[in-house]
Amino acid sequence: MKIVEQIKLPIKKEMELFEDKFKDSMDSHIPLINRITHFIVRRKGKQMRPMFVFLVAKMVSDGNFNERTYRGASLIELIHTGSLVHDDVVDDSNRRRGFFSLNALWKNKIAVLFGDFLFSKSLLLSIDNDDFDLLKLISIALKEMAEGELLQIEKARRLDITEAIYFEIIRQKTATLIAACCGIGAASVGAEPNEVEKMRQFGQYIGIAFQIKDDLFDYSDTKIGKPTGIDIKEQKMTLPLIHVLNQCSKKEKKWLINSIKNHNKNKKRVKEVIAFVKENGGIEYTIDKMNTYHKKALTLLDSYPDSEYKKSLTAMVNYVIERKI
Length: 325
Prior knowledge:
- The chain is mostly helical.
- The chain is built from 15 helices and two strands.
- The protein has helices spanning 3-8, 12-25, 31-42, 48-60, 67-90, 102-128, 132-158, 163-188, 193-217, 230-233, 239-247, 250-262, 267-279, 282-301, 308-322, and strands spanning 95-96, 99-100.
- A two-stranded antiparallel ribbon has the order 1-2.
- Strand 1 (95-96) and strand 2 form a beta hairpin.
- Helix 5 packs antiparallel against helix 6 (102-128).
């Protein structure tokens, strides 16, 4: 059995019910919207985010569950799906998980409007049910996701990202949504504010570790569906490169910056940059940082009694840094 399926076992019934509830949350009287919804639902990924919502909710409430938890998971998936649709437009990407992206099939205008439709649906789902605490958590995440993307674009133009700025970017871009998943999971079952914040912090640590792992794939020799060196080609300053830039000589730094700015489409030069980063400890340093956040996340689970939900959350945290794709 695949690791993700094993993790899902304690919430298998809830995840199956969730698929119908999520589809219903996107329902519209406009036939075009329903055709796009059908296209998206059929191409769902691993659904890690609703899994975080359900497992946290179950762990903090000794297995209790309610409709608010389903709404919280739908809220997350509506925002996540809408942001992915917009990302594909911004990145001019024609593929998503091996399939044509929405903008490749329906063009940018419809893709942007459909993303807007999903955001509005998430707002209404919360407001119609007085889930204002859940709405606040997801609104913070949405604001930070946009800020993180814009900060990365701004810094990529000047290639002056420090390690502190890098962590702020990935906290906002990636970790904030996983933080919202875990916070919403706890809030949906009536957890106290300090426990909601604790679970939000737990999700943030996982999200940071997740993004660092993604950045390491750029230096991997194994095929993962994304070409090696793609971050360098796109002038994205990731942790292995930032660390080496801070450690190397002025001459080497000048060569690295020049390579990324002016020769990032040259395959031979990109390979030389990757080799230089590997030879100068960039990978080891990055793995060490990823493991630090991995341990921080696990430590936050220590105060909870053993349960099948805690076991699955621990497996999720481990999967984040052990995954091959």
